[in-house]
């Protein structure tokens, strides 16, 4: 987004709204005034975007969430209100680096439908199929295996998937994203077989078989 567009956007609006559906749901890392749970229409969440910085490396790219156009689907997430010129400039500069420069995401404006039935325009960072890090469709077992072995500057790719699944399960019960929760279950199964630990709400615990079976049954 050019600075000229950014300046004109900020001059017109006292606040802007940014929609998160991946790590932005549980780790926005910018100052916001308020947030709302809701959805955008016409997309599905897919772990088809490669990542060689936050959750992967050039030799072992991680997989992070992106949005794929799908007329019949909705993606639930979190819309953040960023108010005031300084906070907007700072947040968009940060997001431009985190999402666009490092992550290969573009910005689009979509209609957001809040849980409280309000609607508003939101800025969404979505990685198009043309960007250099796009990996595209892949079967769940292969994706889970790739994710299990990928680590980046922000932490493990496993943490990225499980933190997102936990956030959605806890805060957005309307979201039934089969792709996300199936991938989580594959990762939990592989974690159990490899007897490694699993992060739950900022604590690292050994993954017990009960938790694994409990997850698969939900
Ligand atoms: N744009 C999506 C996905 C954002 C995302 O997951 N970006 C990654 C890769 S560029 C990121 O910033 N990760 C930070 C982290 O993994 O801790 C969202 O709205 O949440």
Automatic annotation (TrEMBL):
GO terms for biological process: glutathione catabolic process. One of its GO terms (cellular component) is cytoplasm. Its EC number is 4.3.2.7. InterPro entries: ChaC, GGCT-like, GGCT-like_sf. One of its GO terms (molecular function) is glutathione specific gamma-glutamylcyclotransferase activity. The keyword Transferase does not apply. Coiled coil: none annotated. Keywords: Lyase. The keyword Lipid metabolism does not apply. It catalyses: glutathione = L-cysteinylglycine + 5-oxo-L-proline. PANTHER family: CATION TRANSPORT PROTEIN CHAC-RELATED, GLUTATHIONE-SPECIFIC GAMMA-GLUTAMYLCYCLOTRANSFERASE 1. Belongs to the gamma-glutamylcyclotransferase family. ChaC subfamily. This is glutathione-specific gamma-glutamylcyclotransferase.
């Amino acid at each position: 987004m050019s600075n000229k567009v950014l300046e004109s956007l900020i001059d017109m609006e006292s606040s802007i709204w940014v929609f998160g559906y991946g790590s932005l749901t549980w780790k926005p890392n910018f100052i916001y005034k308020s947030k709302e749970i809701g959805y955008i229409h016409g997309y599905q969440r897919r772990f088809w975007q490669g990542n060689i910085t936050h959750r992967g490396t050039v030799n072992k790219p991680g997989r992070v969430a992106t949005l794929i156009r799908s007329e019949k689907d909705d993606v639930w997430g979190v819309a953040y209100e960023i108010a005031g010129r300084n906070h907007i400039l700072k947040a968009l500069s940060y997001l431009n680096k985190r999402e666009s420069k490092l992550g290969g995401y573009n910005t689009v404006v979509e209609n957001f439908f809040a849980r409280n039935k309000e609607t508003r325009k939101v800025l969404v960072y979505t990685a198009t199929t043309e960007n250099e890090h796009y990996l595209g469709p892949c079967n769940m077992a292969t994706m889970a295996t790739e994710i299990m072995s990928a680590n980046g500057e922000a932490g493990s790719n496993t943490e990225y998937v499980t933190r997102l699944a936990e956030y959605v399960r806890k805060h957005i019960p309307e979201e039934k994203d089969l792709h996300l929760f199936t991938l989580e279950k594959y990762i939990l199964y592989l974690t159990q077989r490899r007897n490694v630990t699993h992060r739950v709400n900022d604590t690292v615990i050994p993954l017990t078989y009960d938790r694994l079976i409990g997850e698969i049954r939900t």
